Inverse folding.
């Protein structure tokens, strides 16, 4: 039994069942026992590997994307580069290396902001980014400047935000809750129906077909709130953002809540605080929010984006002077990132811009 599991069982005994989003939030970011708060989760030695941890090519493609867009925005200075959920800081380091190579005087006008809740990862980010000698500010919740231009980047950030799940049963939607079994173990159950106005509003704008018995509908209020606040702030200046995550561009019913530990699926109820909990990102409502706020949006698959950004050509150049074994490794990494059998089609890329510019990498 994990320490957090013991505490949550006690809490449920005293206060009743927890909603799934509350459970997910506590498992991931509880100040004492949360997964991100206490663990070095990411990387080959951690529990899961993300795109920037697979290859520097991923960050380089985003670096080139950023420079191109910054130029299309008429090279604003000062310029703020924000990353939400920067993990070990690898992606930001790769982006910066690329940005400063293409725009050497960037050091004079770049400001970095990292939105991060985990003290363990913050320490890692500090170490990795120290050599760039740029001003860095950390924020534990959403931040974007109101007077200066910015670009916000987020890879596998939205999937870590807690979701609620509703199941359609006997003609009604019921919220999934975490409660206790007769033997006092954590179990998932359905709450009795209540009038949930927020749910009905979300459902009515989601353009999904009428539900069938057993269908599951997921809502990520924090992702919606994040995009809504971001779009409002983006409207104030020439700004942009890019989100990469696994999920779907068109809404669908289904259960995508999952726990991962040591690169394998785990039981989310017996690993509280010790496994990564995520859900696929439903980009459809996020795109709808952007549209409603008057923000331009672009979306495609990760594979399509990386190929359009020139990952194959860059991989060829990177490998040109290396051994055939190294070339083989680079080929494998590119395949993992861009091929549809790996991350290429499951992962999606969504870009948002406040002014009429056409970002590279989208058709
Ligand atoms: N972008 C990185 C890490 C992805 S893991 C990469 O691609 O490797 C998710 C990241 O989001 C971690 O840095 C985690 O600590 C952070 N995170 C999770 N929930 C958060 C929240 N609610 N607020 C801020 N950061 C959060």
């Amino acid at each position: 039994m994990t320490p957090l599991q013991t505490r949550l069982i006690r809490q449920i005994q005293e206060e009743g069942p927890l909603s799934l989003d509350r459970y997910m939030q506590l498992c991931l970011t509880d100040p004492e026992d949360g997964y991100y708060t206490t663990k070095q989760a990411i990387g080959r030695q951690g529990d899961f590997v993300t795109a920037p941890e697979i290859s520097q090519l991923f960050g380089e493609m985003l670096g080139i994307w950023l420079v191109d867009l910054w130029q299309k925005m008429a090279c604003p200075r000062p310029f703020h580069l924000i990353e939400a959920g920067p993990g070990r800081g690898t992606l930001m380091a790769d982006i910066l290396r690329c940005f400063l190579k293409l725009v050497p005087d960037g050091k004079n006008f770049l400001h970095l902001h990292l939105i991060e809740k985990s003290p363990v990862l913050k320490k890692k980010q500090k170490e990795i980014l120290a050599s760039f000698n740029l001003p860095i500010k950390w924020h534990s919740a959403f931040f974007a400047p109101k007077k200066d231009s910015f670009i916000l980047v987020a890879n596998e950030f939205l999937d870590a935000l807690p979701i609620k799940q509703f199941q359609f049963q006997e003609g009604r939607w019921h919220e999934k809750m975490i409660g206790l079994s007769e033997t006092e173990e954590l179990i998932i159950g359905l709450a009795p129906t209540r009038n949930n106005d927020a749910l009905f509003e979300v459902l009515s704008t989601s353009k999904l077909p009428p539900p069938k018995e057993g269908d599951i509908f997921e809502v990520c209020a924090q992702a919606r709130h994040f995009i809504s606040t971001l779009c409002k702030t983006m409207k104030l200046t020439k700004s942009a953002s890019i989100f990469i995550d696994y999920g779907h561009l068109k809404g669908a019913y289904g259960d995508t809540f999952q726990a991962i530990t040591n690169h394998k699926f785990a039981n989310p109820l017996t690993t509280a605080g010790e496994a990564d909990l995520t859900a696929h990102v439903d980009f459809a409502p996020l795109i709808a929010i952007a549209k409603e706020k008057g923000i331009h949006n672009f979306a495609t698959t990760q594979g399509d984006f990386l190929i359009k950004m020139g990952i194959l050509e860059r991989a060829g150049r990177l490998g040109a002077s290396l051994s055939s074994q190294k070339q083989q490794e680079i080929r494998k990494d590119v395949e993992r990132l861009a091929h549809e059998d790996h991350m290429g089609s499951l992962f999606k890329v969504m870009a948002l811009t406040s002014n009429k510019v056409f970002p590279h990498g989208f058709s």
Notes: The chain has a mean pLDDT of 95. The radius of gyration is 21 Å. The chain has 14 helices and 16 strands.
